[in-house]
Fold:
Amino acid sequence: MTGMPARIAIVLLAGLLPVLAIAQPVRIGSKQFTESVILGEIARLAARDAGVQAVHERELGGTRILWKALQQGDIDAYPEYTGTLTHELLQDVPADADIATLRARLEPLGIGITDPLGFDNTYAIGMRQDEAARLDIRRISDLRAHPSLRLGFSNEFMDRGDGWPGLRRAYALPQTKVSGLDHVLSYRAVASGAVDAIDLYSTDAEIPYYHLRTLPDDRHYFPRYQAVFLYRLALERDEPAFVAALRRLAGRIDEQAMRTMNAAVKLDGRRDSAVAADFLGTRVEAGRRGLWQRLRQRSVEHIELVASSLGLALALAIPLGIVAARRRRLGTLVIAATGVLQTVPSLAMFVFMIPLLGIGTWPAVAALFLYSLLPIVRNTHAGLVGIAPELMESAAALGLPRRVRLRRIELPLAMRSILAGIKTAAVINVGTATLAALIGAGGYGQPILTGIRLDSIPLILEGAIPAAVLALLVQGLFELVERWLTPRGLRLQARQ
Structure:
């Protein structure tokens, strides 16, 4: 009879698991440019109209981040382009592979692909019309005659298999002044004359707005970039209505329609959800939340990232600092190891976490946790080894056990140094956490990213100013805590 409750529980759980699985919303991702965000919204609204609960994880980063997230199941679908598949992601397929070939190649990976949406958003090279006319540059081949031209390409284009390295070889381009830029900022750069030529997406609304000339690809280097949706094949079983909704989008979006939608969001300042709803002929949700509502949500997300990572760091860094102070050789290794972590660029650290933890809050917390270790370990070590030897000898002479000496004497005397390390880690994390939005963790970085994408200074400030204010508040809070925890005698001594 003792096994009966367990068997009943297993039966109930087995019955509930399908329900729980269905209750999870479909997660749609998008890259960090306007067109991808609009397509993500179109997919979300199409799913909603089909009776499927879906959420749109916006602006998750570049191609590789979305591709890995799809493979790991962190997202269920995202918009992609056939040229990116053939030249960047699936390098063992022909450059002119059709949808059937791509579908057969993706199936073993557990990924499905829709038919093309109806437009081709290829790469192109662009210049200001007046500058191109002055130099008589009419096509990409003409760039060879002007080796001093300054080129500004998007960071992803700089290293892609179908990007600058291959373009330079195909056209034998001699230019050496080549800079990596955010795609959105490159338009400002070419308009201001900071660079002479940039890479374009053929459906970008900024091309006519900035009076740019698109240089013909006379050697046909760039492949076709037909827009499609990639999705997890498991959805054909778990959410067939969603897959059907994606497939119904095939052939419905021509190049002019996409360019018009891009312009409505990027140039006219309309909400991407409203533009997507207009295209589908469906209702749009309630308007954007007010500033204070958005600020409250982003503040909660940001503080949770900082507090979680700092709490985990405290649990490990202070014991490591104690060990480092008591065992000098081991201490050197501990401080060196945490120092190496600090040298890893913050953006790279966030990206490194994706294969391990996916996207969202936890990889961001893990990255911030690693960045928090060094200041706390180093200051804990410095505070303990800086205690006067006479005090330690007196404590030992009293016969106090090592644990008691640590708790009653050493840690209180080292408290100011430890708190300084914690304060440094917390302030650094407040700023670094803005990058967490790149992997879907939200926080103050989200309006900053959106502001960069939409060239909106108010949106950038909506994230930058609260982040700066929070950093100042955190610093002030720890100074108060330091004053409260430091014995009065030590405070008086510090003043003298």
